[in-house]
Known about the structure:
The complex is a heterodimer.
Chain A: H1 15-20, E1 36-42, E2 48-54, H2 56-59, E3 64-69, E4 105-106, E5 112-118, H3 121-130, E6 132-137, H4 144-147, E7 162-168, H5 173-182, E8 185-193, E9 205-211, E10 216-221, H6 226-237, E11 245-248, H7 264-276, E12 280-283, H8 286-292, E13 299-307, E14 313-325, E15 352-361, H9 375-393, H10 397-404, E16 413-414, E17 420-421, H11 426-436, H12 442-451, E18 455-464, H13 472-478, E19 486-492, E20 498-502, H14 511-523, E21 530-534, H15 551-578, E22 585-588, E23 591-594, E24 600-602, H16 603-611, E25 626-631, E26 640-649, E27 656-666, H17 673-692, E28 723-726, H18 746-765, H19 779-788
Chain B: E1 5-7, H1 12-18, E2 24-27, H2 33-38, E3 46-49, E4 59-62, E5 65-69, H3 74-80, H4 86-93, H5 98-101, H6 106-112, H7 119-126, E6 129-132, E7 136-138, H8 139-142, E8 143-145, E9 148-149, E10 157-163, E11 167-174, E12 181-190, E13 193-199, E14 207-208, H9 210-218, H10 243-261
Parallel strand pairs in B: 1-3, 2-3
Antiparallel strand pairs in B: 4-5, 5-10, 6-7, 6-10, 8-9, 11-12, 12-13, 13-14
Helix pairs in contact in B: 3-4
Residues 25-33, 50, 70, 95-96, 100, 103-105, 107-109, 111-112, 114, 117-119, 156-157, 179-180 of chain B line the site of flavin-adenine dinucleotide.
Amino acid sequence: MPKDTGIGASPLRRxxxxxxxxxxxxxxxxxxxxxxxxVFARSTVANGIIKSIDTSVAEGxxxxxxxxxxxxxxxxxxxxxGWLINSRDGEPMKEPKxxxxxxxxVRHVGDAYAAVIAETDRQAxxxxxxxxIDIEELPAIIDVKEALKGDNFVHDEIGTNQCFDWGWIExxxxxxxxxxxxxxxxxxLELVNNRLIPNAMEPRCSMASYKASGDEYVLHxxxxxxxxxxxxxxxxxxxxxxxxxTVIAPDVGGGFGSKIYHYGEEALVLAAxxxxxxxxxxxxxxxxxxxxxxxxxxxxxxxxLATDAEGNFQAFRTETYANVGAYLSNFAxxxxxxxxxTLMAGNYTVxxxxxxxxxxxxxxxxxxAYRGAGRPEASYSLExxxxxxxxxxxxxxxALRRKNFIKPEQYPFASAAGLEYDSGNYDALxxxxxxxxxVKGFAARRAQSxxxxxxRGFGVNAYVEACGIAPSNLVGVLGSRVGLxxxxxxxxxxxxxxxVMVGAHSHGQGHETVFPQVVAEMLGIDAASIDIVHGxxxxxxxxxxxxxxxxxxxxxxxxxxxxxxxxxxAKKIAAHMLEAAEGDIELKDGQFxxxxxxxxxxxxxxxxxxxxxHDFPLEDIEPGLEETAFYDPANFTFPSGAYCxxxxxxxxxxxxxxxxxxxxxxxxxxxxxxxVTGQVHGGLGQGIGQALLEAARYNSDGQLESASYMDYAMxxxxxxxxxxxxxxQGTPCTHNPLGVKGCGEAGAIGSPPTIVNAVIxxxxxxxxxxTHIDMPLxxxxxxxxxxxx
Amino acid sequence: MYAFDIERPTTxxxxxxxxxADEAQPLGGGQTLIPTLKARLAAPSKLVSLGNVKEMQGISxxxxxxxxxxxxxxxxxxTEARSRYPGLARLASKIGDPAVRNRGTIGGSIANNDPxxxxxxxxxxxxxxxxxxxxxxxxxxxxxxxxxxxxDEGEIVTAxxxxxxxxxxxxxxxxxxxxxxxxxxxxxxFADGVRVAVTGASEGGVFRWTExxxxxxxxxxxxxxxxxNVSEDGMINDxxxxxxYRAHLIKIMTGRAVKAAS
Lengths: 789, 262
Ligand SMILES: Cc1cc2nc3c(=O)[nH]c(=O)nc-3n(C[C@H](O)[C@H](O)[C@H](O)COP(=O)(O)OP(=O)(O)OC[C@H]3O[C@@H](n4cnc5c(N)ncnc54)[C@H](O)[C@@H]3O)c2cc1C
């Protein structure tokens, strides 16, 4: 019987009531008395020297309150990179300043060089158009390999377009080269991991207000991590003391990574609110979102896989050019390195891995973590080259993977890419996948498709990822400039209901439903009496926010720890009330009782007592019932999965239809199976979008050609099949109190290679020797590949 | 958006009068025009909404022709033309999404002549007549190239009159992002011959594939196209397909349209 409450139950998401009724309150919904509007003037060229900016006409236009240019921000700091990467030669990465507004040079189409504050949106836009800028246009630097030649630099002061040249694991380089040189068989694949635009439903929006009386600022903004945003603004960019700045991320309509980062628009509205003495709001329009939200992926990779005659993996070697765009976004340097290279051993016992990543500046929007962040890139490279290898060796792709899987008895397993996997069972996942996907029935389905003039292909993928980001001591050694713990405060109110203040931010994940399930289970009380408070730095403890599938594994663990403290304190109070020894008090179903007696008090009575402590022994028991815990994980968590799909390809047009998709994941323990299934569905949608539809394309002049939905193809419901999702094969995480691993990114990590493998299989079935097509596999690309085969 | 005035006349005469103002522009369903205004790519001083003009609304049958008022929305055509001209109704039912179909009008689509619009293919393949406030223009003379038509300044499409074919079909191979046709082919079979019109593919906008028309007028079957090929010269090259691909798709989609119609 499935439970109907607590851990393992699937109550409907309580937050959906307001979202579905249009009653959510997003930043742009918050109207403040005296509010003014900020509009940015943005570069229409990709690369150019700013000769002059004339704002005089704009300043005199109706309703204009202030005009800012880069010159107003030369004194303030740059928006920093959160992770230091050292190159193979030991040199630290290049970190050119990322200013609030472009100064001296514009570096990508959409780079903001001025901002107007006006009474109305139209006045601000009219004035922004009236700003005159004289730009000496320079050739655009777009291609990552070309960028490393010549002397045209995105940032002249660093004298190169290479941010770093990173090797992982550098000590394994020679041995890996040797293994590849001497291998029985080497499979080589060159591929592009296509650049994506996150496309959160709610565009970014920031509103600042300033109170002169206390020299205090409040920033409402679309953030996945308000404390991190505050820290960046306070410590690096604006120098506003943290205790004078409140950052509030109210309802946020999706982030997928793009709202982790601090952006210059946030700093601008803060400065403007002080200068004009009124609240200032900026709301991104959709074009600005395309041009300026941090993009994702964009790797150009060559991968080699060495095997022996039996198909045992001996080494993986990759060389990747990672486009970081025009400026370093906050986690741009971590994403292609430690979130990518460390996963390049996959699910396999391969003894040697060497990864080289060159990060390259270009005249394009900054690139940073996007759902999966580095791990989709790793999984795609690995699982594509393994598929190609299986074909070359004449082996079944499932059998080849199984042959090289880490076996359950090998945990904890030290991977050749430097991580210690704590738990997993990849064969069990593959068994389950073969069962739920009816893999045996494929041949018959293929025959049926062929009878209809269609090509049918089967694709498989095994992935492991690292999430629950992240153990501070480990990431500190690797270059992270922040800790990656999280925090929770559990406040039991006098009347017995609870407010749980958490550092994680919920913008679609369902925390408001799931976290109470955990607390309710632990306390034996009704989840309906527990509310989650998140997103407001003045209310919540200092947590690091939501990304990297960390909310439950890290913040949820903090919730558990804080709730344990509540239980301990409540037992003390109960013991006092029941005149018993603290050690004899047991908590069950919301009742504190003295072991072996029928004496008990309810949770509610204890709560009330905590706040009306008329008879407390004050030297033993403090009044109140409120506890905070910070939780720093001991390791990453390692979700894994076995995915497969079947596609039909129309040989006349190249159009791919995904007929079925099975995702079998190991997320460890599952708190709310429905929410987890929803997360998988969303991830699969984005992954299939990457595989078949989505592409951010810049032309050689640096113009973003796919800057609207007319040209950037988002997946729609009818592009996607009905999924078969299973998470019955969980192996609990061994190091966090809930045994959970994280499920937010899995679908986006595991699905792209699955789809591409299936399309290649379909084409091969028609006798076409197509071994690879770069994503997205649009009809045109698939048709061209068939024609040229 | 820049500021503009709006007028809502109820007769064609009043609409024509209102359009005489400087920089005035007709507003149909706004599905093309409003996004253009939002992006500040156009700055009309005045919009003259045609939505309240009664005589431009609705569908009527006159013998073998179907007359559609210029302000008739796609959703109306999709349902009300179904029994008499199913090929056209089906085309209308696949334009955009329900919101677009319940605002966008045939007059707006024809007047705009987007190189990837659906209606121009139906009008050209049907040998339709475009009726304006001043004259009647054959479809063959109306569509002059990408976003270009025979309309004069201030001239309004008040109706489109479609001869009803014996059989017809429209095949729309969608561009994955916009879902406008990457290539759309409308085939219409009349007693005196077959007409084939192609949209989405050519830099010159909608056009007739006359070789296919001749072949299909002889034998109305997909095989009739076997020896034919479309030249890629003048075909659109963009993110979603090059000229060669579009030329190939024209033949495939024509074959499918013939198969579906026969
Ligand atoms: C999301 C989306 C998807 C779409 N998909 C498709 C598709 O698949 N296929 C397709 O064909 N179209 C598609 N469209 C376009 C849609 O069909 C529009 O309705 C059409 O292009 C314009 O019609 P409208 O009535 O909205 O015209 P408007 O946008 O109001 O006007 C367009 C132009 O025509 C002028 N105009 C309007 N009415 C008249 C008239 N009666 N006489 C003279 N001039 C006039 C206007 O001044 C303007 O210049 C799509 C649109 C959207 C937003």
